[in-house]
Write a structure and sequence with these properties.
about 210 residues; alpha+beta; eight-stranded mixed β-sheet; about 15% strand
Length: about 210
């Protein structure tokens, strides 16, 4: 895809997240990988006002191209791309339920089989650090080991995918699971799936994807 197509996908993705109330105003960010680096959404501009020229490009030496300041979380995106060859898109959101749950500083356990959609038997919660810092980038990378998404303590959520479509879909999934888990915590007496049950689910997901 050419650069204009990639930039358009980022803008449309941000508009979709806002329409679905997964972000408000200029919250969150999206990036898409290229062979030379990645395109990333700008800082502090609401989706409806973002123009193609506002999408910055950052190469793998962390040199920034563009006249508009990139998202404050660009270091986090850069580190993930450098360490995970199979990731082509990243979505960071401040969605309500995931952000609220992140303030508990706890992972989402295996309360529902769809937790496995994120790659394992839980959804981790990355340790808190100042937004935009090298530390938060490292903390998130640690929590994304063998996972396609995680919560971020007192912050929000982040998802990764082989495509922007997958990363956005997983963002929606984390928000849904965060809401369901929060309700279960309020109701109490919920049951967790055990390791064997979750292993069966993870294996079934892998088999399903290999056939499609």
């Amino acid at each position: 895809m050419n650069q204009e197509t990639l930039k358009k996908k980022i803008i449309l993705g941000l508009k979709f997240l806002k329409k679905k109330s997964l972000n408000l105003a200029s919250e969150g960010n999206i990036s898409i990988r290229t062979t030379r680096g990645f395109y990333i959404s700008p800082s502090a501009i609401p989706p409806e006002k973002i123009k193609s020229k506002d999408i910055a490009f950052i190469d793998y030496k962390d040199s920034i191209e563009g006249s508009t300041k990139p998202s404050s979380e660009w270091k986090m995106h850069s580190l993930i791309y450098k360490e995970k060859d199979n990731v082509n898109a990243i979505v960071h959101s401040h969605s309500i339920w995931a952000s609220s749950l992140s303030c508990l500083r706890k992972r989402i356990p295996s309360f529902h089989y769809m937790v496995a959609e994120l790659g394992g038997d839980d959804i981790p919660c990355a340790k808190y650090a100042l937004f935009g810092s090298d530390e938060i980038a490292r903390n998130v990378l640690t929590s994304l080991k063998n996972r396609k998404g995680c919560l971020m303590e007192n912050h929000g959520q982040i998802t990764i995918g082989k495509s922007i479509e997958e990363a956005i879909s997983l963002c929606e999934s984390i928000e849904k699971l965060s809401k369901q888990y929060s309700i279960c915590r309020m109701l109490g007496n919920y049951k967790l799936l055990n390791n064997e049950e979750m292993s069966d689910v993870i294996r079934s997901f892998s088999d399903y994807k290999s056939r499609h």
